[in-house]
Design a protein that fits this description.
The chain is mainly alpha-helical. The chain is 57% helix and 0% strand.
């Protein structure tokens, strides 16, 4: 994804998925420009949440379990746990299939965005990437990770 090789972590494909989700969840301008516009190249909120927890099961246990495989250190894991909990709390309140506007208007959304931003910045910086670049499309993420 940047200067540091993406595949330096044992489970780098999972890291790439988590990073992509956190990136989208942390960028309010992106959410307005892409999600609210219904741009299919980037999925939607539910898709981002899925990428955040699907392979990792972070909706069932702590990111601490993945220090050394997906996450570089306990600080990364803690920041990811905080972001996951905030986003999942909203998803459970509004429903996974709620329209994007319902998520973005939820009273807890700004805090979820802040938590995702903190985690995203930490992971991107550790990987040698600029955390302020625009999120990548889902197709590009699939190409980078070799996913089908």
């Amino acid at each position: 994804m940047g200067a540091m090789p993406l595949n330096d972590m044992p489970w780098w494909r999972w890291r790439a998925q988590v990073r992509s989700a956190l990136h989208m969840l942390s960028d309010e301008a992106f959410q307005q420009d892409r999600w609210l516009a219904g741009d299919p190249a980037y999925g939607d909120v539910t898709d981002a949440v899925y990428r955040l927890v699907e392979d990792t099961w972070l909706d069932h246990w702590s990111a601490e379990k993945y220090v050394g495989t997906i996450f570089r250190d306990p600080v990364e894991a803690s920041l990811v746990d905080t972001a996951v909990l905030r986003v999942l709390r909203i998803m459970h309140q509004v429903g996974a299939d709620a329209p994007v506007t319902v998520y973005l208007e939820h009273h807890g959304w700004p805090e979820a965005v802040r938590a995702a931003r903190e985690a995203h910045v930490r992971l991107a910086t550790a990987d040698g990437d600029d955390p302020d670049t625009a999120p990548r499309t889902l197709d590009l993420i699939r190409i980078l990770t070799g996913a089908a």
